[in-house]
Design a protein that fits this description.
This protein is mainly beta and 186 residues long. Helices cover 6% and strands 38% of the residues.
Amino acid sequence: MTQTTPKPVRRIVTGHDDSGKAVIVMDGAAPNQRVRAATGLVSTLLWVTDEMPVNIASNADRADRESPVAPPKQGSILRVVDFPPAGDTSGISNEAMLKEMGIHHDHGGKPARHAFTHRTKSVDYAFVLEGEIDMLLDDSEVHMKAGDIMVQQGTNHAWVNNSDKVCRMAFVLMDADEPPAWKKNP
């Protein structure tokens, strides 16, 4: 899979100056962008929190770090992902994709429905910003287009762009408790 360089994501972060006045502390292209070799998608990390409630007293760049796909315990992640057209995915290893994402998931000894199948212990808000994409579950799927929003609750899924244009999505992932169903359906 190949990926052209996507347009940058403008990130604006507010905070406070020393007197407590509300100010813009960052405004520009989000610097933490990387191409995921296993899938060709581009992931731009915009913000990460490590605690709840969140400490909002600092003006530090909370996205200046390496981060797996899943959020930290008691934390959250905001990222934008550019999904290239999937094309032929037969040469993509689910194991390599999971490793690159920092996810440990063995699908219960069964083969993954799709090479991109994964899950995280999180509640995810997924926003299609541009383009269209299919979200595959264990035995169903849903087609999404720009303006559609999904709430994804720790389910096995794969994002597959079956169109001929890049699909840009924004994701907010929040740490969650592991559901009892995971013990029945790893």
